[in-house]
Amino acid sequence: MRDTFLSFIRYTCGDLRKVSELAGTTTEDLSPLVAEIVHFRESSQDIWEMAAAAAEQTLADAAAPPDFVVYVSENDPDVAGSLGRILDRLGLVSVAHLAVSGQDCGNLAPAVQVASDAIHSGRCDRVLLVLADRAASGRRVMASGLSVFSDGAAACVITRDPVRDGPQFRVVGTGSRTAIRLDAGGTAEQGILATVRLASESIADLLGALGRGRDDFPYVVMPNYRPDAQKFLMAAMKMPVQKLLLGPVTDLGHCFSADTLITLHQQAASGTLTTGDRLLVATSGPHSWSTMAVECL
Predict the structure, then answer these.
(1) What is the model's pTM?
(2) How many CB atoms lie within 10 A of CB 276?
(3) What CATH code is carried by the domain that includes residue 69?
(4) Whether residues 172 and 275 fall in one domain
């Protein structure tokens, strides 16, 4: 993967709700989630409306309009219709576009890869990436109690060269591993260990391709799982827990494929991330794990 730049990250989320309000709606033990996640976001807007709102914020600050749009959603029941409505609202009715899905909360990394390929092939110069999702009915709490799904969207501009203004991130590589186990039995712990194996292998692939070591990346960003679960994954992957850069877990919950992008934006805006900081950014789906090597500019 050739260097690709993410800029003008903006987002929108639903209304703040307490996790304790979910009592009686699930068989999962909510105690760890009430303590560690605390809040989630709920919206009455359609998924496409959240997507358009985030994209409007991004385009309001970007220097030039995009010439390609990538839309990411796992739960949108009408992706083609949503793309039409989003592009109409944004005034991009003649812009080429496509949708990416299939890896659920892990869709960010493959979407960035698709955008990067489009840019470096010469097909386009500026990609508008929009990620949006809303929890499906009865699917607010993640399996195994890892987190609570939140409704929201994030957007950014992807280019082959850095832009002049504002925080931005250089993606220098991606490693990904997949293992589909549709008929796999076993316990939740065995499932977590399988995830750890995919994560470790994706990191090894990425670092091998880059010719770098783990010490070259002082930060690791994961999806907004319970902090204890993130720390467990770090330890299982033999990564120092001190590298873990937590996102806005207690304020946001797990915003599907958008929350790692939101974490990058917030940590740069707060000054926690500064120019030259390198990160490993993880995205995880039901059968996959991807890791992006990212540098803050």
Answers:
(1) 0.95
(2) 8
(3) 3.40.47.10
(4) yes
Tell me which of 99, 131, 159 is where a domain ends.
159
Q: Mind listing the pLDDT tens digit for each residue in 207-246?
A: 999 999 999 999 999 999 999 999 988 988 889 999 999 9
Please report, as a single letter, which amino acid is at residue 175.
G
Same domain as 199, residue 154:
no
Q: How far is CA 40 from CA 72, 134, 146, in A?
A: 21, 12, 13
- Domain shared by 149 and 291, yes or no: no
pLDDT band with cut points at 50, 70 and 90 for residue 252: very high
Task: Please give the residue range of the domain that contains residue 283.
Answer: 168-296
Contact of 89 with 52, CB cutoff 8 Å: yes
CA distance 54 to 70: 13
| Last residue of one domain, picked from the residues 159, 187, 207 | 159
**Cα torsion 199, 200, 201, 204: sign:** positive
Say how far apart CA 262 and CA 84 lie, in whole Å. Answer: 25
pLDDT at 177 over 60: yes
Length of the chain in terms of residues written: 297
Number of domains in the chain: 2
Find residue 173's DSSP bridge partners: 293
Report the DSSP pairing between strands 278-285 and 219-221. Answer: parallel
